[in-house]
């Protein structure tokens, strides 16, 4: 009798492995189970471009992933959601969300900023003001559109728009390479 049972043990093990190996992952959120673009996103974070916002439905749609693998995800928002002013159509955004019942609800919406190139550092407005007050050897460059520069700009700033930077930046910069260059714009471009 023992010999007959031992013959079935390998079969039982194989059936168990096949059953568990083919079982559906019940812990994966439904929108990430078949979506590689969403799987690469950090847990409870969507990074991508806002494709829509409905104040009436209180939802934000964000496209995550690139190219053919891009998917549109939707989260709800409420009065507790921070940073809703960053949920603008076409803007690169990071949305942190949490599950509330069966709904994904945005907790924080913030702009997705470009990484600065190596050797470039960000300085805060207070630091720029200190440099201006000290009359530091620097060149302040306003990279906003010309109309915005004409409306108002920092004292001593020169206008070099982003479009101009793409084509003729070297000839627009000062010859003195020892001066600090401070670029600013009207937002997070």
Kindly summarize this structure in a few lines.
By secondary structure, this protein is of the alpha/beta class. It has helices spanning 2-22, 30-33, 36-39, 125-133, 146-151, 162-172; strands spanning 45-54, 59-64, 71-76, 92-100, 103-111, 138-142, 158-159, 180-184. Mean pLDDT is 80; it is low at 15-19 and 21-40.
Question: Please, what is the average pLDDT?
Answer: 80
Write down the Rg: 27 Å
Distance between the termini: 78 Å
Low-confidence stretches: 15-19, 21-40
The largest sheet, given as strand count, sense and whether it forms a barrel, is:
5 strands, antiparallel
CATH topology of the largest domain, by name, is: OB fold (Dihydrolipoamide Acetyltransferase, E2P)
The level 1 CATH classification of the largest domain is Mainly Beta
Count of DSSP helices?
6
Number of strands: 8
CATH homologous superfamily heading of the largest domain: Copper binding periplasmic protein CusF
Shape: elongated
Give the SSE string: HHHEEEEEHEHEHE
